[in-house]
Amino acid sequence: MNHLSIAADLSELDRVRQFLRETLADIDISEENGFKIELALVEMVVNVIRYGYPDGGGELAIEIRKDRRRVIIEIRDSGIPFDPCRAPKPDIDKVIAAGRKGGLGIYLTREIMDECLYRRDGDQNVLTLVKKI
């Protein structure tokens, strides 16, 4: 298992990407799946940073487990309780027509990952993302 703890700050995204790349370096994974996993991880971390801690501060813990068949990412935070796995599907046409930036990260993550699981563990959000490789 590999762990990374970061401050809930957008300046930490490069560390998150590097952590993921180093963790996955020793497994045989397609470039496409590597991209999908990185996109999903970054989107979910950005969501926690932007919305989980509206007053700033906070931390996130990321754990990555892997085997020959899948990559499992667990993101833990103590921010506002939120289950992205049950968030309503956005009206993509409205998002595009409004010219909004953002609003599709959770949807994209659920579409590109094979599993999205959420639970509340005490005062923590625990999001588990699984990608079959």
Quick gist of this model?
The chain has helices at residues 13-24, 31-52, 92-97, 105-112; strands spanning 2-7, 59-66, 70-77, 115-121, 124-132. It has 133 residues and is α+β, with helices and mostly antiparallel strands. It has one domain (2-132): Heat Shock Protein 90 (2-Layer Sandwich).
Structure description:
With 133 residues, this protein is of the alpha+beta class. The chain has a single domain, classed as Heat Shock Protein 90 (2-Layer Sandwich). 36% of the residues lie in helices and 29% in strands. The chain has 4 helices and 5 strands; from the N terminus they run βααββααββ. Strands 1-2-3-5-4 form a 5-stranded antiparallel beta sheet, with helices on one face. Strand 4 (115-121) and strand 5 form a beta hairpin. Helix 1 runs antiparallel to helix 2 and helix 2 (31-52) runs antiparallel to helix 4. The protein is globular, with a radius of gyration of 15 Å. The model has no long low-confidence stretch (mean pLDDT 92).
Overview features:
4 helices; 5-stranded antiparallel beta sheet; 29% strand; Heat Shock Protein 90; 133 residues; alpha+beta; globular
